[in-house]
Amino acid sequence: MSATGGPKRTTPIIGGINKPKPIDKRHPLAKSDPDLERILVQLSSKIQYAYIRAAMIADSAPTFEPVSYATQVVAGTNYYVNQRVTQHGWYGKNCGGGGDNDAEYCHVKIFWQPWTNTAELTGIAVRKTKQDPFEYDMPAP
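The structure assignment produced for this chain is given below.
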């Protein structure tokens, strides 16, 4: 029961961002949200390009590992994904993202509309930490 005496809300609030869900071995993305896993693969090159532009780095080929995500119900779904960034130089050297203390994260916002099969990268925020909250308004890629 909620404080007002009514039942607790378990369905997402339209327009509100749900509590972030972790992605790890106990909660793999393939089981928790297979659509998001497919969308991240589909948009991987766009995310990489947007990250390089937003972070203003030249000698890097970053890879991304999603660590948590949240959803927002709109005329489809907005996915907010926190991703751990590993930067690889063009010659294969790791350029950063060693331990969790000095790891770099980025947030991406993806709009997904299944009935039109639309998946679009709509925002990216760089130089985040693992604990930074998601923002509604991320800079456009």
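Interim note for the steering committee: The chain has one domain: 23-128. The helical segments are 29-32, 34-42, 44-55.
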